[in-house]
Design goal:
Layout (H helix, E strand, L loop, with lengths): L3 E9 L10 E10 L2 E9 L8 H7 L3 H4 L5 H12 L4 E4 L2 H14 L7 E4 H8 L8 H8 L10 H22 L8 H13 L11
Parallel strand pairs: 1-4, 4-5
Antiparallel strand pairs: 1-2, 2-3
Helix pairs in contact: 5-7, 6-7
């Protein structure tokens, strides 16, 4: 990966920003040349109460979030961190993309970006895994978690390591010597998703 990738994860009040759900935590790590080089994370104060199911997952109640910076402040800091990078990676990218777009819009920030999805890539490259939840994929690839599951920074670090493993697997199977960039990975993802009856896989995971 000669490009710089921002691996991102949100914890949220629910599943649908169109129904008023908001982000309560954001975390990012930057991956360059198959290495995590830095990180950013913050709780987010929005005043929106989490649905019971979401609260059970991440445990971030209003009493803790009331001490956090407001969403506008966090998104400004996020943009300072991102700088010129515009390529994001997430596990179940459509979910994180929706919340990123929503928080940017509410903060009045225009920012063009692109996503790669480790969930889709893992399904393509490791079809024999029992499922492709982040924890399952991480376990099968030997990625160890150092923090609490379903907290943004911990999940982001795991996703980054999974992404690095996926990229290395593709390099090995396709016998490529160069570190993979966004254009290659995006084209791989698009081509595979268009081929419902054809596996674009070399070997098994």
């Amino acid at each position: 990966m000669s490009d710089s990738f921002i691996v991102i994860d949100f914890e949220t009040t629910g599943t649908s920003p169109s129904q008023g759900d908001r982000a309560v935590e954001i975390a990012c790590v930057r991956v360059q040349d198959n290495t995590i080089i830095d990180s950013f994370d913050s709780l987010i104060k929005t005043g929106v109460r989490s649905h019971p199911g979401a609260l059970k997952v991440h445990g971030l109640g209003l009493s803790e979030l009331d001490k956090a910076p407001t969403a506008n402040v966090v998104m400004d800091r996020f943009m300072d961190y991102v700088a010129d990078d515009e390529v994001f990676v997430a596990h179940n990218a459509p979910f994180d993309s929706r919340f990123l777009d929503n928080e940017l819009e509410l903060a009045g920030i225009e920012f063009e970006h692109h996503f790669l999805c480790t969930l889709k890539l893992a399904r393509m490259i490791y079809p024999d895994f029992p499922n492709h939840k982040l924890g399952t994929v991480a376990d099968h690839l030997g990625v160890k978690r150092t923090g609490k599951a379903h907290r943004a920074l911990s999940d982001t670090k795991v996703t980054a390591e999974v992404f690095i493993k996926i990229s290395q697997t593709l390099q090995e199977r396709l016998q490529l010597t160069d570190i993979l960039d966004f254009d290659f990975l995006a084209e791989f993802e698009r081509n595979r998703l268009k081929r419902s009856k054809t596996r674009y896989i070399i070997g098994n995971g």
